[in-house]
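Lecture 7, part 2: worked example. A protein chain together with manganese (II) ion.
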Amino acid sequence: MLIQSNTIASHNDGLLKKHQNKLVFTVSEIGETEAIIQKLIDFQIAIPSWALGTGGTRFGRFPGGGEPRSIEEKIEDVGLLHALNNASGAISLHIPWDIPTDYNAIKNLAGQHGLKFDAMNSNTFQDQANAEQTYKFGSLQNVNKAVRKQAVAHNIEVIKHGIELGSESLTVWLADGSSFPGQLNFRKAYQNTLESLEEIYDALPSNWKLFLEYKCAEPNFYSTTVADWGQSYSYVQKLGDKAKTLVDLGHHLPNANIEQIVSILLMDNKLGGFHFNDSKYGDDDLTAGALKPYQLFLIFNELVEGMDARGMNHAKDLGWMIDASHNIKDPLEDLLQSVEAIMIAYAQALSVDRKALEIAQQENDVVKAQEILQNAFRTDVRALVAEARLRSGAALNPVELYRSLAVRNNLISERGLKTIATGL
Ligand code: RM4
Ligand code: MN
Ligand code: MN
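Predicted complex, written out as structure tokens:
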């Protein structure tokens, strides 16, 4: 299904008056908004190919129908999102869930939808059919050299696919760890992992980055070999300039101060990118901003401050991606909600009065500092985000338009009710 620009234009016409009234009010509240709107127009958040189908839990899966059956259909789904919000201009592939066969055809298709290929993801947490070695006891950390070799070769294969598609980064997330005390020699597991990562790093083209994602637990429940930002930092520091830490919001121990982690990584030029989602208990992979919008804002506040301090390009210099799983919502609607929440947090962070905050910090004026941040958080910036969409030909209200066009029903009639997307 394709959404035509005149369909979007007539949707926008119907909402224009109301939108303009809101915008006038927001501009009067914030003051200078043109620079913010331009940054919002430029900002793109990559969509993970594995979030386009129903995730399910280990207890059950309830497919909603019309799930993409191939990499081409996944690209089409992201194309739909991008047409609606003009903020989802990239797709992140996971190998071997999305093995490209005809690179040129896939690149052309992505180009038609205005999409780029974001980070490539390797998978050494599942055994593939016909694989000689098993990852039951880990991949890059494995005590068995043959397993490590297979896992390294897989990552290099993923880089090769990515080169063909024009991607410029590899995300490595390892399920490696141990489930019981005594199972693993932590030091040897670390050293094996480092050695394996070095081999992967050596295969990176000069313009590529390697993102090393950490996760405190799951699927192993006693130790994880890249468990937290300190451990990821320790590896990426040794690997070299092209290696950076990737922060997935759902991968921390409860109450971790993620905004502080982000600030320090950024300061040391070791922050690579993000996986946005929200959670209450663990790696819940819920819609970004669904539970803790203030935390999301505080993270963006540090990002904006830290990126500006380094003179970085907000849109290009870090990898922005959603990593979510949809069990009871339509994945496409949920992704639209996530992108919206991320954009709102970013817009709020852009509207923080930084000079005043700096003075308040310098004067130890704690009350004032809190007032400044909370004032930005409590200002309704949705009209700015909508204005950015309007100016770039996207929909004023993407979820509403998605529903009024009955996109899911269209996808079901095109693809069938019982289609299953590859992924988790
Ligand atoms: C992991 C992690 C990775 C993702 C897999 C599917 O928990 O977040 O980023 O590739 O899930
Ligand atoms: Mn992730
Ligand atoms: Mn995760």
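Residues 50, 121, 173, 213, 215, 248, 275, 283, 323, 424 surround beta-L-rhamnopyranose (ligand 1) (CB under 6 Å). The mean pLDDT is 97. Keep this in mind for problem set question 3.
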